Amino acid sequence: MVKVKMNVQTAYHGDLLREGKVYEVDEETAKRWLASKLAEKVTEE
Q1: What tens digit of pLDDT does each residue of 18-40 get?
Q2: Are the C-beta atoms of 22 and 3 separated by less than 8 Å?
C-alpha cells in the first residue's frame, strides 16, 4: 500500500476521495495516479 495525497476529487471502489486528503491505495493504482498527476506520493516522516 502507498500513501498518496489527492490533487483531484475522484471515486475509487465506491468511496469518494477528496482533493487535498491523504489516502492509502494499492501500488498499481498509485503508479497510474502519479503518472497522470491525479495524486502525489506522501513521504513518511
Answers
A1: 999 999 999 999 999 999 999 99
A2: yes
pTM, rounded to two decimals: 0.85
- The answer to whether 10 touches 20, Cβ cutoff 8 Å, is no
Residues in Cβ contact with 42 at an 8 Å cutoff, skipping those fewer than 6 apart? 3, 4, 5, 22
Question: What is the DSSP secondary-structure string of 1-45?
Answer: -EEEEESS-EEETTEEEPTT-EEEE-HHHHHHHHHTTSEEEPPP-
C-alpha–C-alpha distance, residues 30 and 41, integer Å = 8
pLDDT band at 43 (very low <50, low <70, confident <90, very high): confident
